[in-house]
Amino acid sequence: MRLPPVGAQRARDLLGRFAGLPVLVVGDVMADRFIIGRVTRISPEAPVPIVRFESEHTRLGGAANVAHNLAVLGAHPRLVGVIGQDDAGQRLRRELVSAGMGEEGIVEDSGRPTVEKVRIVTERNQQVARVDYEIDRDIEGPVARRVIDRIAALGAGSKAVLVSDYLKGTITKRVMEAIVSMNGSVPIVVDPKIPHLDCYAGATVVTPNHHEAEAATHRRIRTDEEARDAARDFRARAQAGAALITRGEQGMWLSSDALEGAIPAAAREVADVTGAGDTVVATLALALAAGGTLAESAVLANHAAGIVVGKFGPATVTQSELLADFESAH
User: Fold this and answer.
1) Which of 28, 32, 109, 278 is catalytic?
2) How confident is the model at residue 274 (pLDDT cuts 50, 70, 90)?
């Protein structure tokens, strides 16, 4: 079974409601730093390419990329996350301000570095290596209390909550309980990780990719029927209202008590899947906040994913790009 498509007029109506919608984002914020250079020879010291430096730049990653996606779509994201007291954290703060977002929800932890992924990339966007700076233990003590306080302060009045869990320590059972108990009937969208499945009880929808769904349910997913069964099992394990499995070139599968079905892939040309999941959950949560049904919101998220995978690195999608994609499909 396929879910019905969303017409261009309905997409235009929903997109028109995005402006200024307050959405709380809680999760693992990251700095994605790209060191770009030219490769012309192999090192005589080891069989590795020598990258001659040309430039570098930092992009918002993880939960910060989710918030950036919301901002570009016209929403008013309120971001809560943890950084270290280091240069990477200051760069991340500057990027947040540059993107027009507040940093009042950012909590500093002197006992851990800011999560930073440093990618060494050629001028042709080929990744040579990646270096990760992180400590992934759960937040606790005063840091955890400050995070929960920020959630309470910034969550008031939010039309949706988005949880971006990268297993870097920000999302804990206690943090999830604070989110669920605070927001009542407001939709809660969770980008999950398998070790935390027991934490997500009460979420409106969880959005595993097909690898995560296979691992959590011990099922192979090759057909729509297998996706259906895995989605049912996944949402039962997570105690969530719905599950949206992202399946790459196979599109998505949505499962809830009210409906379930496939959403065909909308990708045209894939350049880089980095951050595509961030775009999916941002669009999904914002469409729900705008009054879209779960099915309509999932279809909008699918179109957004099809656009963003055509861009390099953590990227965003604009309202005009989304609307043009719907108009070209109808």
Assistant:
1) 278
2) low
